[in-house]
Amino acid sequence: MASFDYIPLLAPGLPPPVARWNGFAQYNFIGGHNDPAHVPVAGLVKAMTDVLNREGSNLATYGLASGPLGYRPLREFLAKKLNRTAGIVCDADEILITSGSLQALDLVNGILVAPGDTVIVEQETYQGTLVRLARAGARVVGVPLDRDGMRMDALAATLDDLKRRNVRPKFIYTIPTVQNPTSTILSEARRLEMLRLAEQHGVPIIEDDCYADLIWDGRRPPAIYALSQHGGVIHLGSFSKSIAPALRVGYIVAGWDALSRMLSLKADAGSGALEQMTLGEYCPAHFDEHVPQLRKGLRAKLETLMDALNEQFGTAAEFDDPKGGIFLWVKLPDAVDTMKLFQPALAAGIAINPGVEWATDKERGKSRMRLCFANPSHEAIRAGVAALAEVCRREFGVPDRIANVEQQARA
Ligand SMILES: Cc1ncc(COP(=O)(O)O)c(C=O)c1O
User: Fold this and answer.
1) 272 C-alpha to center of ligand 1: Å?
2) What is the pLDDT of residue 406?
């Protein structure tokens, strides 16, 4: 078909066009996909059938007779679940269901961020957030992490420094519970210190908690939202990591002061009803039995990945053993630029996330990569890591031993 020339008509400031999708790579270590074996298909089918048979006629109304905050039984489940697991005391009317937590991030940015504003983030953080903040014209300041998450001494110094320059940041964005990409968990003491600093400087905290259900031993610190005495925290969550990302169901927990503003921006007449109804039916009876099985499957895959990296890369790949989640954040030798590894790896069928895209300090991200281990099978993890080691050695000369065989001798 002949194509119409939209270019002279396009609105200014659009992001570049996306490339066409050509399918997943054979060895797919990118994105935040979940484990196909642990999507609770039978339970979702039953839940959807039951709820549609019972309440399907409510589809006749926008908002399912539950109002603009989303399907009420799902919000009621969340209020109970967040209380039990994260210590959050809220009722269903303090929860807004969104189309994934990405929409939640858009709404937060929408009400708070204008071009030129400053936002504080972890120095290594979620690319989806960095991209959004860049598009909103925000100035992003990264605070270093250590093994216990964001460093509070560094946050205090950052806030003091901004104050000296008369800059009041719009918010502190944090992924405190199984951080993306480092998988660190912010300790309770640090959560309290973050709240103290935030209050002292009059800065709200955006707590992005979408991996909190995926801690191997099931024990998590209370949410920052739960520990707050003075408000000023917006809590974001998602079913993407605990059930399935394609459902596109996330949520925001906040006071009405913030929720009412975000609702006025959420001009989509409600997020998809079938997925909300299905989750609202499935979760009260099954969430608690489903999640430990998922965690077990993910932990097993992580072990396969760490074994494969140790075998194929030896000491050239450094990483901590994460306490949960779906990602391994890997440091390769300084000589390796993972952005330059990305293309040849893809050509060999291996998709990796280069570290620079997950870092505010590009130099720090340069020789790091993020590997998602949830989606590939155990066999694909082993074969993919072996293939990646070959490409890395070809391009950068490391690792010089693969599977403990000296590479010169092999050639
Ligand atoms: C930290 C973080 N926040 C938000 C999201 C978005 O998730 P979703 O929109 O699927 O809920 C992701 C996805 O990977 C993430 O890692």
Assistant:
1) 17
2) 60
Sign of CA dihedral 19, 23, 28, 31: positive
List average pLDDT for each run of 10 residues in the chain, which is 411 residues long: 91 92 95 95 98 97 93 98 98 97 98 98 98 97 97 98 98 98 97 98 98 97 96 97 98 97 96 97 98 98 98 96 98 97 97 96 95 98 98 94 55 38
Show the tokens assigned to 276: 């909300």
Tell how far the Cα of 118 is from the centroid of ligand 1, in angstroms: 22
Mutate to test the pocket of ligand 1, among 102, 124, 127, 150 (most ligand atoms within 8 A of CB): 102
Q: Which of 90, 237, 255, 101 is nearest to 177 (CA)?
A: 237
CA of 101 to the centre of ligand 1 (A): 6
CB atoms within 10 A of CB 223: 23
100 lines ligand 1 (CB under 6 A): yes
Q: What are the start-end ranges of the H helices in 113-255?
A: 127-135, 152-164, 188-201, 224-227
Question: Rounded to 5 degrees, what angle do the CA atoms 91, 233, 95 make?
Answer: 30
Q: How far is CA 346 from CA 20, 142, 322, 341, 367, in A?
A: 15, 29, 26, 9, 17
How far apart, in whole angstroms, are the C-alpha atoms of residue 395 and residue 336?
A: 9
Nearest-CA residue for atom 7 of ligand 1: 101
Provide the pairing of β-strand 368-372 with 353-354: antiparallel
Which atom belonging to ligand 1 lies closest to the Cα atom of 104? 9
User: Does the C-beta of 179 come closer than 6 Å to ligand 1?
Assistant: no
Is the full-model pTM beyond 0.90? yes
CB 175 less than 6 A from any atom of ligand 1: yes
Structure confidence at residue 409 (pLDDT): 39
What is the distance in angstroms between the CA of the first residue and the CA of the last residue of the chain? Answer: 50
% of the chain surpassing 90 pLDDT: 93
- Report yes or no: 376 and 385 within 8 Å, Cβ to Cβ: no
